[in-house]
Amino acid sequence: MRMMISRKLFFLFSILTVLPGIVPTALGQEYGGGPIVFIKPVRAVIFEHRYHLGKNFDCQSCHPDLFEKKAGAVEEKDDFTMESFNQGRYCGKCHNGTIAFSVNTKCNWCHIGVQGHKHLEEYELGLK
Amino acid sequence: MKSGNSRAVSLEERRRFLLLGLKITGVFVGGSVLSLVPAPEVRSELLGASVVGTYPYQPHYAMLIYKDRCIDCERCIEACRQTNNVPSYGSRNTILTRKKSGIAASKMIREFLPVLCNQCNRPPCVRVCPTKATYKDKKNGIVMMNESLCIGCKACMTACPYNARYYNRELQAVDKCDFCYRKRLQNGDTNTACAEACPAGALFFGDLSKHENEIYTLLHKPEQTILVLRPESGSMPNVFYLQG
Fold first, then answer.
1. What is the ipTM of this complex?
2. In angstroms, what separates the C-alpha of B74 from chain A's closest C-alpha?
3. Quick one: which of A38, B81, B238, B240 could link to A45 by a disulfide (CB 3.0–4.6 Å)?
4. Is A13 inside any structural domain?
5. What are the contacts of B109-113 at 24+ separation with CB within 8 A?
6. Model pLDDT for residues B51-85, shown as the tens digit of each residue
7. Pick from B74, B109, B199: CB nearest A109
8. Could you list the residue range(s) of the whole structural domain that residue A58 is in?
9. pLDDT tens, B165-190?
10. Bridge partners, B175 (sequence order)
């Protein structure tokens, strides 16, 4: 009898501790399978979900109005350029200087460059 | 010396020593100044301020680089490779990169610095070339390469403070940026391949000898900080780095 009770307790305990890890939380979750890297029209631009999720923003802030819910799909569009951002499309909707920093500042926060992309692939994602 | 106390020197001895010194100086004053640097350079060194800010070549080609605008898309490197037949193992220009420290946002943030031949006014590469295969063009100030005279000793590659040269196995000579002179400027084009390819406006090429040119105005903006790479090398480059 004792053995059966402790086994139940063991299972319950393990489920309660493991479950929170399996269910994704809003903060710190990387949707799209890791940082999303765009190589068109310039290589390379990085986007990380974890810096965009939190108290003020949720999935509906961007999806599906600004971006598709498919990682990397937006770079196929021809107007995915800085000019579009300046006109308020895509990232420029919020990165206009008032809601978030303007796209005309802090270029290297997103533009990691060819070398940044190579570094990311080699060290962070372990693809090489 | 003869005096008993080893520290004290008598007046006699001092006089003799000074007279000897004057005699030796007299020999040099009468003769010419021994110098390892050519005489015109010494003269301009002594004149100092009149050298900086003058653009003696017609045209005086230079490049402005806005280093904060470079995003390392490397289109300039690709454009140069295509225009000037640069092989894959070498490059006429590079983008240096380093991680920016102290920023909380992301560990991926880097800053980028495009580097190419600075077409120095006092080029160390020209100075060390044993065959005069490389020379500073007297008309436009571009440091040119005469491949037929190059023996591949690579002394210029060592001398260049900017690592702007590379050895080209096909040409069997050292190759370097010539501001697209052979492929573009000679044929009437007024812009280099790299400056044209840059999507961020980080590279600006032009002729500084005409005061009405845009490059002159951009460079001579008042209260602007102008940086050059490795000024301590004394090479006096013609590529200027600006902020903003």
1. 0.70
2. 7
3. A38
4. no
5. B109/A108, B109/A109, B109/A112, B110/A108, B110/A112, B110/A113, B110/A115, B110/A116, B110/B72, B111/A108, B111/B67, B112/A108, B112/A113, B112/A115, B112/B67, B112/B70, B112/B71, B112/B72, B113/B67, B113/B70, B113/B241
6. 567 888 889 999 999 999 999 999 999 999 999 99
7. B109
8. 25-124
9. 999 999 999 999 999 999 999 999 99
10. B166
Contact of B117 with B100, CB cutoff 8 Å: no
Residue appearing with tokens 């040269």: B165
Can you tell me the distance from the alpha carbon of B73 to that of B138, in angstroms, rounded to the nearest whole number? 35
Tokens of B233: 């090398």
* Per-residue pLDDT tens over the stretch A22-45: 444 444 457 767 788 898 889 889
Nearest CA distance, B44 vs chain A (angstrom): 42
Nearest chain B Cα to A41, which residue?
B73
Task: Answer yes or no: is A8 within a domain.
Answer: no
User: Phi first, then psi: what are they for A93, rounded to 5°?
Assistant: -60, -40
Class of the CATH-defined domain B56-242? alpha beta
Domain-wise residue ranges, chain B: 56-242
Has residue A79 been placed in a domain?
yes
Query: Lowest-confidence range among A54-68, A70-84, B179-193?
Result: A54-68
Contact assignment for A48 to B72 by CB distance below 8 Å: no
Residue A6 lies inside a defined structural domain of this protein: no
B153 pLDDT exceeds 80? Answer: yes
Helix residue ranges per DSSP H, A23-125: 82-86, 113-119
